[in-house]
Amino acid sequence: MARPTTVHVCSDCGHEALRWAGRCPGCGAWNTLVEEVRSGGSNGAGGAGRGARAGVGGSRGGTAVAPVRLGEVQASEVERLPTGIGELDRVLGGGIVPGSLVLIGGSPGIGKSTLTTMAVANLTGAGRKTLYVSAEESAAQIKLRAERLPGAALEIPVIAETDLGAVLATLERERPDVCVIDSVQTLHAAELTGAPGSVGQVREVAGEIMRVAKQHRIAVLLVGHVTKEGALAGPRVLEHLVDCVLQFEGERERTYRTLRALKNRFGSTSEAGVFEMRQGGLVEVLDASARFVGEATHAPGSVVLCAMEGSRPLLVEVQALVSPSELVPPRRVVSGIDRNRLALVLAVLTRHAGVAVGSADVFVNVVGGVRVDEPGADLAVALAVASAARGVALRGGNGADGEDGPPLACFGELGLTGELRSVAHPERRTAEAAKFGLGTIVTPEAGTLRRALRAAMPAERRPRAA
Ligand code: TYD
Ligand code: MG
User: Fold this and answer.
1) How far apart are CA 371 and CA 179, in angstroms?
2) Where in this chain does the record put each RecA family profile domain (predicted)?
3) 151 annotated to bind ligand
4) Annotation-wise, does 113 bind a ligand?
5) Chunked mean pLDDT (size 10), the chain, 466 residues
6) Residue 405: phi, psi to the nearest 5?
7) What is the whole-number distance in angstroms between the Cα of residue 142 and the centre of ligand 2?
């Protein structure tokens, strides 16, 4: 049997080298050589990507294909396999599409294995053929988890296998409707010399699994780990390959987790699901606002943001801390919002509202490990920082000054000239705040940041007009 050889290909210029080097001999870029399979013979075992393209098919052996006018293409309504987990189905756009490839990314311990196990447990219970491939845990470990989970978790057929070849052969033979690969970074393609999890390995593993999955219409939930920096380790290279990319976020120590779609060929990317990790697995949080606002404090630096999670309003607490700094430049630490957005808000606060924090450390946190990636969060950040900088609590949500009553709620985007700009779904946001008894809401109708601050700060502590 002809042994497939591997080549190292530069991801920048495409130069091919037989051996790995830190620097590409072709273009001189550092750390760009990625190992790939170059199938030697005609058997083409494992020859995805370049190997397949350059191989037998091509102009030599191919037969011409007749193009079809788009109008004549028979396209049926996309069929879905509901996982029975409402929040997951919503983020997917109504369930798993047969034959699709879904990448679920998240940091270790966040609950990816739990979520995928629960999903396939429901599918198994609904009579679908499933398969759980674990390259991380032994079958016994998976069983221990499944015992804690509701439903048909113990009915799931599992294999604990790290060899890609064995997994592909099993998929070909079993042909399940839905399969979980946990995780793409721990499977190992024997043809490549790189360690599991390296870019070459991850690409080969995903490419081969996709080939088999599309051939047999197997829907695949591909689990991938995320690095500390928040990027899918290696799998960045997979994002264009898969149909959906779901990100599972939150802090391991906290109970709340959010699931959002970064890419979705069959649905919207604006939906998000909220889960809570409990003893018996992940539980959907349908009344997320109540949880987050119930814990909101009425202290300086705290405000409630009426955010939108996809099409649903969500109330979250935004906290800020401003403290004198020894560092030049001072620290700007954020969690749950974009760092550049904070820089913008601080600049507008300084320039247009007379709140200067130039020589202080500023920390901003969205409580509960939630991420709010929308411009509507600007006003909340501005009010929290202004309140923290002055050391005064904002007005209560019932309009009264002082410590009692519900906290103040707000939303709105900040313009560079200090004006407030309207954001999507103002009625839904105000309605959600009202539902939880937050009567005083500062909205973009205030017009400018200065006026919003005046409405939010107790009378005697308002910033003086500059
Ligand atoms: P896990 O799904 O293994 O995370 P990942 O696959 O993303 O690495 O589980 C994460 C954590 O959840 C783990 O520390 C144990 C906890 N857990 C519960 O609290 N309750 C449960 O019912 C289960 C199954 C796990
Ligand atoms: Mg896991």
Assistant:
1) 29
2) 77-226
3) no
4) yes
5) 72 85 89 78 42 49 87 78 93 92 91 95 95 95 94 94 95 96 92 84 91 94 78 65 89 77 86 87 86 80 90 90 91 92 95 92 89 91 95 74 74 96 93 86 94 85 49
6) 90, 170
7) 9
* pLDDT for the residue 462: 52
Which ligand 1 atom sits closest to the C-alpha of 223? 6
* Nearest-atom index, ligand 1, CA of 277: 19
108 appears as a binding residue in the annotation:
yes
CA-148 nearest atom, ligand 1: 22
Q: What is the pLDDT of residue 458?
A: 80
pLDDT of residue 203: 87
pLDDT value for 36: 83
Residue 150 Cβ inside 6 Å of ligand 1? The answer reads no
Interface confidence (ipTM) of the complex: 0.97
pLDDT value at position 381? 97
Q: Is the dihedral angle over the CA atoms 41, 42, 43, 45 positive or is it negative? A: positive
Pocket test for ligand 1, best of 277, 282, 283 (most atoms within 8 A of CB): 277
Residue 325's contacts (CB-CB under 8 Å, 6 or more residues apart) are 331, 359, 360, 361
Q: Is 383 helix (H, G, I), strand (E, B) or coil?
A: helix
In terms of C-beta density within 10 A (0-12 exposed, 13-18 middle, 19 or more buried), how is residue 138 classed?
Answer: exposed
Question: What does residue 187 show for φ and ψ, rounded to 5 degrees?
Answer: -75, 155
HSE at residue 235, side-chain half, CA atoms within 13 A, is 28
| Probe residue for ligand 1, chosen from 88, 104, 114 as the CB with the greatest number of ligand atoms within 8 Å | 114
Question: Edge-to-edge, what's the strand order for the sheet holding 332-335?
Answer: 332-335, 360-366, 312-324, 302-309, 409-410, 441-442
Atom 12 of ligand 1: nearest residue by CA position: 111
CA–CA dist 209, 197 (Å, integer): 15
